[in-house]
């Protein structure tokens, strides 16, 4: 009854563990887009299985045997733990990327000297810094 659901949850857990391990070694690896697509597919399959179970019986979770309930509980816990670790490392990767882009923008600003002086109608001189254009022309 819930074998497909548990199978999808275990597969998603394993995939997240693999992604977390690879991301902890470096910010990029060639399989990253494929893993992201597979995670989306597995998440969709989990949603579809839960929807199917609800269509078949509103009380499907109450109809589980003790063994099925234990398997589902264990799969849910493992998925939660893997998701937490995966979310943490992805958040760190995003923060690093944002910091890196800010550092690049600051260096470009410094190198291009996009500083302007504006003379006001009262004779005051005000400084203004325009943002330096940033363009990343690389295929990752």
Shape: elongated
Assembly state: single chain
Helix content: 55-70%
* Average pLDDT metric: 87
What is the gyration radius calculated from CA atoms? 25 Å
With helices defined by DSSP (H or I, 4 residues minimum), what is the helix count? 3
Give a short account of the largest sheet: 2 strands, antiparallel
Low-confidence stretches: none
Distance between the ends: 43 Å
Order of helices and strands: HHHEE
Strand content: 5-15%
List how many beta strands DSSP finds: 2
Strand arrangement, major sheet: 1-2
Sheet/helix structural class? mainly alpha
Question: What are the main properties of this structure?
Answer:
two-stranded antiparallel ribbon; mainly alpha; 2 strands; 140 residues
Write structural notes for this entry.
The protein has 140 residues and is mainly alpha-helical. The protein is 68% helix and 7% strand. It has a two-stranded antiparallel ribbon with strand order 1-2. It starts with a helix and ends in an 11-residue tail after the last strand.
Short description:
The protein has helices at residues 3-25, 32-56, 66-112, and strands spanning 115-119, 125-129.
SSE layout and pairings?
Layout (H helix, E strand, L loop, with lengths): L2 H23 L6 H25 L9 H47 L2 E5 L5 E5 L11
Antiparallel strand pairs: 1-2
Helix pairs in contact: 1-2, 1-3
């Amino acid at each position: 009854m819930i074998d497909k659901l548990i199978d999808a949850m275990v597969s998603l857990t394993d995939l997240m563990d693999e992604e977390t391990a690879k991301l902890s070694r470096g910010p990029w690896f060639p399989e990253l887009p494929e893993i992201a697509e597979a995670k989306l597919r597995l998440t969709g399959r989990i949603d579809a299985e839960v929807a199917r179970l609800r269509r078949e019986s509103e009380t499907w979770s109450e109809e589980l045997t003790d063994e099925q309930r234990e398997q589902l509980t264990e799969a849910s816990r493992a998925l939660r733990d893997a998701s937490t670790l995966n979310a943490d490392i992805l958040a760190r990767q995003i923060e690093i990327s944002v910091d890196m882009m800010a550092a690049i923008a600051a260096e470009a600003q410094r190198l291009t000297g996009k500083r302007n002086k504006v003379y006001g109608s009262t004779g005051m001189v005000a400084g203004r810094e325009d943002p330096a254009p940033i363009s990343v022309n690389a295929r990752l």
